[in-house]
Structure formats: C-alpha cells, structure tokens
Amino acid sequence: MFVVHVDNLGAVDAVAPRGSATFSTDVSAPDYDANMCSMRATILHADLDAFYASVEQRDHPELRGRPIAVGGGVILAASYEARATGVRTAMNIRQARQLCPGLLTVTPRIDAYSEASRQVFSIFNDTTPLVEPLSVDEAFLEVGGLSRLVGSPATVARLLRERVASEVGLAISIGVARTKFLAKVASGVCKPDGLLVVEPDAELEFLHPLEVGKLWGVGKVTAAKLADKGITTVGEVAALGEGPLVSLLGKGAGHHLSALANNLDPRPVVTGKRRSSVGSQRALGRQVRSLDDYDGVLLELVDRVCRRLREGDRVGRTVVLRFRFGDFTRDTRSTTLDQPSASTALFLDAARHLLLARGDELVERQLTLLGLTIANLSPATAVQQALPFDGRSSPQLDTAIDVLRDRFGAKAIGRATLLGSAPGPLVPILPDRGPEE
Ligand SMILES: [Mg+2]
C-alpha cells in the first residue's frame, strides 16, 4: 500500500511509502463522504509544463537547457531554467534580465502554441469523453470509467504522459486525486514532468504540510493576514476552524478556505459546457503609448472577439474592458447593449466609449495590458436581427471579412488605421466548440 505515488523524470512507478503510524490516523478526518463526488482518486489534472517556453525548446534544440523567456516587453512564459533565477510570467524583460543576465528572449509564435494545444486536447479527448478544459494547456479528465478498458487512473495518467511526450514532444505533469482541487494541487507539486497520485486515505496527510499559498484563492494579501496569526500551512488553516477564519477573512473567503483545507470540493468534472464569455487580451509592455495606440489595440481585439462570436454562431450583449496598469493594479469597465449582437461595429462603438471615458487617465497611468471580453452570450439563432440603423453596422460586411480571413488567413484583410502598426503577441485561446446549452 502506498500513500502517494510519484513518477518524476523517468522514475516510473516509483513508490513513496510512508510510516503506517501517521497513515492509519487520518480516518479521524471530518465526515466528508456525503460531499464527495467519488470515493476513488479518478480525477486527473493534466497541465503542460512552462507551455510556450517548452514549445520553443522543442522546436529549437539550441534553446534546450538554457534560460529562455517568451515575450516582447512582458514575459508570457519562462523556461524552468529561467524560473530558477526568479524570472516569472508577467515580469517585464528588463527586470528579468537583472535577475538572469544570460536570459534569452524568444518572439512568441502563437500559431505553434495553438497547434500544440490542439494536439494535446485531441489526446485528452481520445483518452476519455469527460474532459473539462481550464485553459489552452490544462484540463481535468475524469477517468473512473476506464478501469476495465485501460487500467487504473495512475495507468491512464502514465499512458497520457507518454503519448503527449511522444506525439507532441512536450512534458505534461499530472495530478490524480478524488477532488479537482487536490488533483490541481498535486500536479503543481510534482512539476516539472511528474505524476503524483494522492490516494483517498492520504489526502489530508498530503495536503496539510503544504504552504497556504497552494489553496485556491490565497494570494499575497490573504497569506499575509494568515501569517500575522502564525498560520503558514494548510494544516494550520484547517486546525483554526471555520469560525475564526470567517472573522479573519470575511464570510466568503473564510468558508471557502475552511472547505479547501479540509479537502471538501464536491465539484464534478464538467464537459461540453459552452463558455459564458469570449475574450482576448494583449500585453503592451512598458513603452509609452498614446490613446491612439490603445484605440488601435482595441480595434484588433474587437475584430478578433466578434469574429469568434460569429464562428460559434453566438451573440453577446455585454462588453467588458480589462485594464492592467504599470503598477500592476487592475480595473475593469463594462457596458451592455440594448440587444444581443455579433456586429463588430456595434461592439467597437461600445468599447470605444468605455476607453474614451477614461482616456486621460489611461495615458497618464500607462496600460501594460488591455483585454476585451464579450459576455452575456446566447445562440445567434435566438436573436431577432436588428436593422442597421446607422447604415454602417452591416452584418454582410462582417461576413465578407470573415470569409476572406478564413480563406486567406487573418492578415489578408485589415483596417487601414492599423497599417504599419506592429501588433504585440496575442494570447491563444481555447476553441469554443461545445454543444448548445
Ligand atoms: Mg501549464
């Protein structure tokens, strides 16, 4: 019998036995069975390691084993060699070079990352029909039904890792547990290139020694509040109890942390759920920009997001602009249309309105990221099409541009205002191809 089972860098099926004394005591855990979605560890959290950086090292052998950062002004991803020196995602390149003088920077190749993501997700979907995507490089997979067909969840995870390595050429770490939360924690703990199975009778033994930052929703502020009370581990959070946590952190956060620290996470793996929003964002780096520059970025984002709405046969009503400033603070502004639409012109008007309303402030504080999300989505078939009152919001124009881009590529046609501007990297996004709600 084993507590956790680690497969790291070739040490396949290595087993980490623990003392049976500590091991037999965790039946004293709270009676959470009624809340659990499964009594066995059948949920996989699979997460590619340093995704963009790994794709670059895969395709450029001279970059392997070296500290690299993918990005322009701002780092989108850093290799493990770079992370070892303290380089992190979202850091600006100058700051990163101070930490890591030998840092090599690589221009992002979004198409290559999208292709790798597509290949990995097709292996996920080939493994089990129960796949819940979290982002372009990670997903939950429920594999409890595969025991006769393929084998135990640990075996399924091992085969999945082998396939991703041999077919896509990338390392993927997998955590296996009875709850989503724990599976995600486990994959984080076993990175890079690891497999970690947390058996049901060893969950709290695994969880409680970890630092509080491993709990979902614990950022720097919450961690500091807890540290003030001498609490640094998940076990100490659990021992504190829900009452004191609520008085320290507020009702929502206190309840949430208390549940996670006791491994109460009843959420099942959910598949085929259509997203409730579609968005895109652009990192802007640190160079000084004008309102016109921001407007250019906004045009591109609206173009891209509206096109994705139309591809998915969906319409939306609410447009949300997301701002990140040079001092790392963030803010959002949103507005809602009178009726749902997928028209580029309508959303552009609405988004511009939001941008201009804060124009002076944005220029003064300097944006490092601009994001646009269209939410409040519904199927396009449910909409009564509005007439183009202003004479320029033509669905035919949008359709004609979509057709051109489908045939000749996204750059085949563009806005005259954006001619000559060098776009920064766009972040790849998951395809929205689920069934209708
Ligand atoms: Mg990842």
Strand order of the largest sheet: 2-1-10-9-3-8-7
Mean pLDDT: 82
Distance between the termini: 44 Å
CATH first level of the largest domain: Alpha Beta
Low-confidence stretches: 1-37, 383-391, 432-437
Radius of gyration: 24 Å
Output the CATH homologous superfamily of the largest domain.
Answer: Reverse transcriptase/Diguanylate cyclase domain
What portion of the residues fall into strands of 2 or more residues? 15-25%
- The rough form would be described as globular
Helix content: 25-40%
CATH topology heading of the largest domain: Alpha-Beta Plaits
The strand count comes to 15
The number of helical elements comes to 16
Hetero compounds: magnesium ion
Summed up, the domain count is: 3
Largest sheet, described in full?
7 strands, mixed
Describe this entry's structure for a reader.
This protein is of the alpha+beta class. It has 3 domains: 1-207, Reverse transcriptase/Diguanylate cyclase domain (Alpha-Beta Plaits), CATH 3.30.70.270; 212-261, DNA polymerase, domain 1 (Orthogonal Bundle), CATH 1.10.150.20; 277-418, Dna Ligase, domain 1 (2-Layer Sandwich), CATH 3.30.1490. It contains 16 helices and 15 strands. It has helices at 20-23, 51-59, 80-83, 93-99, 110-127, 153-168, 180-190, 203-207, 220-228, 234-240, 242-249, 251-261, 291-311, 344-357, 359-365, 395-408; strands at residues 4-8, 14-16, 43-48, 68-71, 75-78, 104-106, 131-135, 138-142, 172-177, 194-198, 277-283, 314-325, 330-341, 367-375, 378-379. α7 links the parallel β9 (172-177) and β10 (194-198). The two termini are 44 Å apart.
